[in-house]
C-alpha cells in the first residue's frame, strides 16, 4: 500500500479559505482555532501543523494578497508600453475583486483598530507594502509619461501618485463598507479616470 500523498499547498489554501469564512462570520476575537479546523474539515492537530497560532492566519491571508497584487502590477508593466494607459490599467486593477475584499473588510478594521493586536500580527506593515508598491508604480509611469511628453512636466510625480493612491484606497473602502451599487461605483470610476486623464495631460 503506497503512502498517502498530501498536497501541502492545497491544504494550506483550504485552511486560509476556511479562516476567511470563519473570521467574516465571527470576527477575529471570537474565532477559535477549533472553529477553523471544523470549517476546513480537518482535525485541530492537522491545522496546527500548518499554523501554530491564530495570529499567523491574518498575516498569511494578507501576505498572499500582497504577493498576488505585486504579480498583477508586474504583468501590467509588461502589458502596457504607453504610460498613460498603464496608469489607467493600474486604477482598474485596484477595483478588481472588491466583492471578495468586502467580505473581509470587517476583519481588517478589527485588527487595525487594535494597536497591540496589529503590532503582534503586523497587518499594517503588509498594507504599507501594498500601498508603496502601487505608489511606485504610478510614480514610474508618470515620470515615463513626462519623459515622452505625454504628461505635464510641472506635475509632481510623488505628490500626484500618493494623492491617487489615497483616492483609490478611499473609493475601495467606501465600496466595501457601504455596499455601493456596482453601476454607481462603475460610474464613479469613469469620472475618476476622466479627471486623471484631464489633469495629467500636457
Helix vs. strand class: mainly alpha
Task: Work out the helix count.
Answer: 10
Note the run of SSEs as H and E: HHHHHHHHHH
Global Rg = 20 Å
Largest sheet: none
Q: Got a strand count? A: 0
Estimate the helix proportion, in percent: over 70%
Regarding quaternary structure, what we see is single chain
Q: What is the number of independent domains?
A: 2
**Taking all residues together, what is the mean pLDDT?**
92
What's the CATH architecture name of the largest domain?
Orthogonal Bundle
Keywords:
202 residues; mainly alpha; Arc Repressor Mutant, subunit A; Tetracycline Repressor, domain 2
Structure description:
The protein has 202 residues and is mostly helical. The chain folds into 2 domains: 1-54, Homeodomain-like (Arc Repressor Mutant, subunit A), CATH 1.10.10; 55-200, Tetracycline Repressor, domain 2 (Orthogonal Bundle). The protein is 78% helix and 0% strand. It is built from 10 helices and no strands. It has helices at residues 8-26, 33-39, 44-50, 56-79, 83-94, 98-112, 115-121, 123-147, 157-178, 182-200. Helix 1 packs across helix 6 (98-112) and helix 6 packs across helix 9 (157-178). It is elongated, with a radius of gyration of 20 Å. The mean pLDDT is 92.
Amino acid at each position: 500500500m503506497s503512502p498517502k500523498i498530501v498536497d501541502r499547498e492545497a491544504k494550506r489554501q483550504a485552511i486560509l479559505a476556511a479562516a476567511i469564512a470563519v473570521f467574516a462570520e465571527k470576527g477575529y476575537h471570537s474565532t477559535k482555532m477549533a472553529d477553523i479546523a471544523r470549517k476546513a474539515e480537518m482535525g485541530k492537530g492537522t491545522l496546527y501543523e500548518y499554523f501554530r497560532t491564530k495570529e499567523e492566519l491574518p498575516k498569511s491571508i494578507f501576505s498572499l494578497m500582497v504577493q498576488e497584487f505585486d504579480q498583477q502590477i508586474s504583468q501590467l508593466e509588461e502589458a502596457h508600453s504607453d504610460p498613460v494607459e498603464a496608469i489607467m490599467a493600474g486604477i482598474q486593477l485596484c477595483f478588481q475583486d472588491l466583492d471578495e475584499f468586502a467580505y473581509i473588510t470587517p476583519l481588517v478594521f478589527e485588527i487595525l483598530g487594535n494597536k497591540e493586536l496589529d503590532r503582534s500580527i503586523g497587518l499594517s506593515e503588509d498594507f504599507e507594502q501594498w500601498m508603496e508598491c502601487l505608489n511606485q508604480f504610478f510614480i514610474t509611469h508618470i515620470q515615463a509619461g513626462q519623459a515622452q511628453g505625454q504628461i505635464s512636466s510641472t506635475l509632481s510625480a510623488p505628490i500626484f501618485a500618493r494623492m491617487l493612491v489615497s483616492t483609490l484606497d478611499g473609493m475601495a473602502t467606501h465600496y466595501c463598507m457601504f455596499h455601493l451599487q456596482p453601476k454607481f461605483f462603475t460610474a464613479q470610476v469613469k469620472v475618476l479616470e476622466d479627471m486623471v486623464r484631464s489633469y495629467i495631460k500636457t
